[in-house]
């Protein structure tokens, strides 16, 4: 793993959250993107060398809708940049981590992504991200 790629925050209302975080960071989001396969709209902010991803559910069955219903708005996941996502999945699986997505899928912000189950990471949802070239 190279670095923290972004921190994902679940929100109920993306427009309101974009306004709040723009005030907080002193700068507007740089990108809004729908990830239909996950049932979310995302918005990205750049904060120094770090990124924050806001996630709003687009349907009541999405993982984000279920997360908010259970836990409320807040930090949803921490994403890490990797050079070779398939090798990293294999490595982590061999170390005993439970992998949610053993085959990477297309995510937001031009990334291939895979998630580690929070039951194997002390309750933290971990996302692996590899830039699509």
UniProtKB/TrEMBL annotation:
One of its GO terms (biological process) is L-methylmalonyl-CoA metabolic process. The keyword Metal-binding applies. PROSITE patterns: VOC. Residues 3-131 form the VOC domain. GO terms for molecular function: metal ion binding; methylmalonyl-CoA epimerase activity. Keywords: Isomerase, Metal-binding. The keyword Isomerase applies. It is an enzyme of class 5 (isomerase). Its EC number is 5.1.99.1. Belongs to the methylmalonyl-CoA epimerase family. This is Methylmalonyl-CoA epimerase. It comes from Oceanihabitans sediminis.
């Amino acid at each position: 793993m190279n670095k923290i790629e972004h921190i994902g925050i679940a929100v109920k209302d993306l427009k309101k959250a974009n306004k709040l975080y723009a005030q907080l960071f002193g700068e507007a989001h740089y990108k809004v993107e729908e990830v239909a396969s996950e049932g979310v709209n995302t918005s990205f902010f750049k904060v120094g060398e770090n990124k924050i991803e806001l996630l709003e559910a687009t349907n009541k069955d999405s993982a984000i809708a279920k997360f908010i219903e259970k836990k409320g708005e807040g930090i949803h996941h921490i994403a890490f940049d990797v050079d070779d996502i398939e090798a990293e999945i294999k490595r982590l699986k061999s170390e005993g981590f439970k992998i949610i997505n053993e085959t990477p899928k297309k995510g937001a912000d031009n990334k291939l992504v895979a998630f580690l189950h929070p039951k194997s990471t002390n309750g933290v949802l971990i996302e692996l991200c590899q830039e699509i070239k």
